[in-house]
Design brief:
Length: 109
């Protein structure tokens, strides 16, 4: 009967992973463009964009004049719809930024 010591079958320590490689400027631009395109497909609109960041927005387009007229014409019945529209249609902002490694970072939304 033999007893193996824990050191007998131990594997050598793993080598540390190499540091992540920085992405090229063109790759970072491409990654940001793909992320922006994906968000636009999901209903966001681009408010501003540079090579390394983009600001997108959604909502905030309630036509208050139209809702006021409809509320008057329907003897205030449309007022409930108007209130719901204001709550649902609140403005949201999303900022996308690409880091030096090509990762797209999201903030907000």
């Amino acid at each position: 009967m033999s007893f193996d010591s824990p050191d007998q079958h131990a594997q050598p320590p793993a080598e540390p992973a190499p540091p992540p490689q920085q992405a090229s400027f063109e790759q970072r631009k491409r990654n940001l463009a793909q992320a922006v395109q994906s968000e636009v497909v999901n209903g966001w609109r681009v408010e501003s964009q540079t090579d390394e960041s983009a600001v997108l927005a959604k909502g905030g387009t309630t036509n208050h004049t139209l809702h006021l007229i409809l509320t008057i014409l329907t003897c205030s019945a449309w007022g409930l719809v108007w209130i719901a529209m204001v709550i649902i249609n609140q403005r949201k902002t999303l900022m996308l930024r690409v880091d030096e490694y090509g990762n797209v970072l999201r903030q907000g939304g």
